[in-house]
Amino acid sequence: MRHPDQPYHHGDLRAALLERAVEQLRTGSPADLSLRRLARDLGVSHAAPSRHFPDRQAFLAALAAAGWQRLDAELAAADPGPDAGLRPRVLALGRGYVRFATTEPALLELVFARKGAGEAPHAADAVSGPALVVADAQRRGEVVPGDPGALATALWAGLHGVAALSVSGALPGTDVDALLVRTVDTLLDGLRPR
User: Fold this and answer.
1) Half-sphere exposure at residue 110, Cβ-oriented, CA atoms within 13 angstroms
2) CB-based burial of residue 7 (10 Å sphere; 0-12 exposed, 13-18 middle, 19+ buried)?
3) Lowest mean pLDDT across 33-42, 46-55, 79-88, 108-117
4) How far apart are CA 33 and CA 110, in angstroms?
């Protein structure tokens, strides 16, 4: 039975649950997330989340999908656009990616864990920034011909590697931005037409 001071309805409970979960991930891990606790934090009954998420797995899958969308939006905001040139664009995307990884490490971990379980969108579909940059650069002759998605995946893997290493603590005392610049220059050298 619902307690009188726990409303059943909430303006946008689904979005509120996802946002509150992102907040909790900043101080915890995906294993710490509890729909019951999130409901309590939002002042709704413990059963209210079930209207949007049939179980914890569905909730985590939705949270991972929201994480992809958030990352995509941050990369789009970081991209200075085609007129900036290839190197500045890739550096901006890399810096945006590292910023996201260091700000939301548990969310990024969840995104990749859910992807591994086949429950999150495919990276190439969800994070379009690198593919757009590669396609633009191909049109200008700055990047070798080929499937822009496949080339962008290689580029993205390098950016993800720098972000993952910076979050993991494996780079104590390392200037992460300098590492990012070296990584981008190396990757772009490999993508340059010969």
Assistant:
1) 29
2) middle
3) 108-117
4) 11
The residue assigned the tokens 């606790």 is 37
Burial class (CB in 10 A: 0-12, 13-18, 19+), 155: buried
Q: Which two tokens stand for residue 63?
A: 């949270």
Residue type, 24: Q
CB 131 within 8 A of CB 149: yes
Task: Encode burial over 27-37: b for 16+ CB neighbours within 10 A, e otherwise.
Answer: eeebeebebee
| Rounded distance between C-alpha atoms, residue 177 and residue 192, angstroms | 22
pLDDT digits 0-9 by tens, 45-102: 989 998 899 999 999 999 999 998 899 899 989 999 989 999 999 999 999 999 999 9
Give domain 66-191's CATH superfamily: Tetracycline Repressor, domain 2 (1.10.357.10)
CB atoms within 10 A of CB 178: 9
- Cα dihedral across residues 146, 135, 185, 142: positive or negative: positive
pLDDT in tens, 127-184: 577 888 999 999 999 999 999 988 998 888 999 999 999 999 898 889 999 999 999 9
